[in-house]
Amino acid sequence: MFYRLSGIHHTRYESASQLWPIPADRWQVYALLALALAAPLLVSDLYLTSYLLPWLIMTSAALSLTLLMGIAGQLHFGFAAVMAIGAYTSIHLVRFGLPFELALLGAGLMAALIGGVFGAAALRVKGLYLVMATLAMQYLVDWIIVNVPAISGGAQATLQTPRTTFLFLPLHKDEVRYYVALLWVVLVTLLILNIKRTSFGRALVAVRDKDFAAAVIGINIVRYKLMAFFTSSFLGGVTGAVLAYCFYQAVTPEQFSFNVSIQIVAMVLVGGLGSVLGAYLGAAFVLLVPIVLTNAVAYLAGLGLLSASTNLLAHIPLMVYGGLIIGFLLFEPLGLAKIYDNLRKYFLVWPFRHARS
Amino acid sequence: MAYFLELLVNGALTGLMYSLVALGIVLIYKSSGVPNLAQGAMVMLGAYAVWLMASWDVPIYLAVVLGAILMFAFGLLAERLLLRKMVGQPIIMIVMLTLGLEIFLRGFAPGFLGAAPKQIDLGLGLAPIILGDVFINRAYLVGGVIALLLIAASLLFFRTHIGTKLRAVSDDHVSSWSVGISVERAIGISWGLAGLTAVAAGVLWGSVQGVDWTLSALLFPAVAVVILGGLDSILGVFLAGLIVGILGSVVPGYLDQLAGGGTRDVVTSLIILLTIMFRPHGMFGREDIERV
User: Exposed/middle/buried for B194, CB within 10 Å: 0-12, 13-18, 19+?
Assistant: First the structure.
């Protein structure tokens, strides 16, 4: 009904293989994009900078990771370290005098190079061992950043992002920061959507499903695994730089700690492995639900309906967040994207009941 | 020289206490192939449980026994309610599930029982034992001895009737089913035993560094121990614990002043990385042979 399929006949390959072949989907995307572009006019600055902005940036991070974990099947528990490399590289490059646009590129390249080293572990091991190896690398990168004063500016130091411009627009204005983040997330989204329908993406999927079998049908698994790590780390590095410049505006090593890595993995899993829409939904869910629930409990406690100590309130986000991960893995392993998909399939044939899918 | 000896002895003893945390991971991995990344939080939960009962004026040793029973039940429940539904799922799902449990417990225990560090007094006294020029931490000594005893006990346990069943299950689930062994129950028991070792580790570490969420950070050295020793080897846990403990004490003892601190985590990370790069199945672990 809402997604009317009758009368849609693709007569050319181009129209059948476009990103959103069903007009209803396409119009939804355009509408969302229009809303996103108009957001600075629609919502207050507080919402723009403290909810929308981190959501968009963490979505780009989750998208970069879903390319690696969902599409290429390589587990990565050190993604925050990759983002940290990007963030610190971009800051030092801009301080060195490079324009911000080039610094973003440099951040991506640096993160991709070091991220490729993470990938070297993937050539040797997979599954659980890859998790452990990337976890260990996260600790190593963190330690190097903290203990080399040339990078972090000394232990316990906060590094301010220098004032700079993006395409001649001043980057310290809220709207400009928002549009930079929006531009980046749109770019990453289009990239991942397109990777999924190219030979590169299909090769990655083959490697994910069974790498030996992929090798048998002629896919160079060394090359594709390294390319997956390289691409994903590049995107992660630029995302880290965008996160530093557009959201935090000052970086400390704790912003890229192991917990952040887990958070991004949780976004990917809660959203649905390998799903682009899932990255958006997962990031929103993981960022917002703990805040909403803490506020709700605080509100109920304020009304006197519930007694909650400040200590308990401080720990609710952790509990919610662990509970979310457990709950989704147990009850909807394919994540929020699957829930959306079920709804969409229902409305595809509504008011009838059977979908041909 | 005395400084080196002191680092060596205390490192070896801490290493044995790391083994105690790692023992739980090995017990579970051996029977079910599940890498239990929630073991750190289980150690913390065990310590909190014992502290809670001790604060109700239960004698400490009775509290430890009661805590052990509670954590055995917790292990059984975790297996029944969470892990059994994940059979056949990809490894990332199982890893994330145990990690989710770790995060949940890290919020749950400090949230309801208080985040400030708490004392568990085992009545050991604080004065170090002095052997020649070497100062040995009394709590570490007791912890090391108990860890040794428990590792020996678990080696012996695998010779008993139930232990034989567990070994069969660790070998092959389907063939165990076909000879009438309840695989589910065996895996449940291994989770319960992991809960028991978690209480032992929690009480010992809690008496050393206080009971709070930092106990769950023991997961990281414990992971290094199991990776180095082999995920399914109890003997490996013992030797790897010694190595991780000694390296984690001697290297920072000399390098921390030069590098500005925190070298212990670097040593631990390097142990994990190098083991995985050169011998992924660890010193004594069983090598997986993969077929298409």
Answer: buried
Distances (CA, A) of A154 to A87, A229, A310: 16, 30, 33
Q: Between the CA of residue B102 and those of A262, A318, B39, what are the distances in Å?
A: 11, 10, 7
Domain ranges of chain A: 38-349
Does A123 touch chain B if contact means CB atoms closer than 8 Å? no
- Is residue A2 within 8 A of residue A347, CB to CB? The reply is yes
Class of domain B2-117+135-278: mainly alpha
What is the spatial distance between Cα B213 and Cα B102, in angstroms, rounded to a whole number? 11
Output DSSP code: residue A248: I
User: Global pTM?
Assistant: 0.90
Please report residues of A whose CB lies closer than 8 A to that of B292: 210, 212-213, 216
Q: Is the peptide bond before A351 cis (omega within 30 degrees of 0)?
A: yes
Considering only CB atoms, which chain B residues are within 8 Å of A208? Answer: none
Across the A/B interface, how many CB contacts are shorter than 8 Å?
A: 139
Q: B interface mutation test: which of A128, A148, A156 has the most B CBs within 10 A?
A: A128
Phi, psi of A251 (to 5 degrees): -110, 140
Summarised one tens digit per residue, pLDDT across range A297-344 is 888 888 876 666 778 888 888 888 899 889 999 998 889 999 998 888
Q: Which tens digits make up the pLDDT trace of B125-146?
A: 667 777 777 788 888 888 889 9
H or E element that contains A295: helix A276-303
Task: Give the residue from A326, A328, A332, A338 with the most B CB atoms within 10 Å of its CB, the best one to mutate.
Answer: A326
Give Cα A9 distance to the centre of its chain: 35
* CB–CB contact B260 A125 (8 Å): no
- Any CB–CB contact under 8 A between A315 and chain B? yes
The Cα A150–Cα B101 span in angstroms is: 38
Q: For residues A350 and A152, what is the distance between their CA atoms, to the nearest angstrom?
A: 57
Q: What is the ipTM of this complex?
A: 0.87
CATH node for A38-349: 1.10.3470
Whole-angstrom Cα distance, residue B209 to residue B206? 5
Distance, in Å, from the CA atom of B196 to the CA atom of B69, rounded to the nearest integer, reads 8
Single-letter amino acid code for the residue at A187: L
Residue ranges of domains in chain B = 2-117+135-278
Q: What are phi and psi of A154, to 5 degrees?
A: 100, 155
Q: Which of A329, A332, A334, A338 to mutate to test the interface with B (most CBs of B within 10 A)?
A: A329
Amino acid at A83: M
Q: Count H helices, E strands: chain B?
A: 11, 2
Buried b (16+ CB within 10 A) or exposed e, A274-305: bbbbbbbbbbbbbbebbeebbeebeeebeeee
Among left, alpha and beta (phi > 0; psi -120 to 50; other), residue A164 is beta
List the beta bridge partners of residue B129: B136
In Å, how far are A74, A76, A134, A258 from A119, measured between CA atoms?
Answer: 9, 9, 9, 18
Backbone φ and ψ of B136, nearest 5°: -115, 130
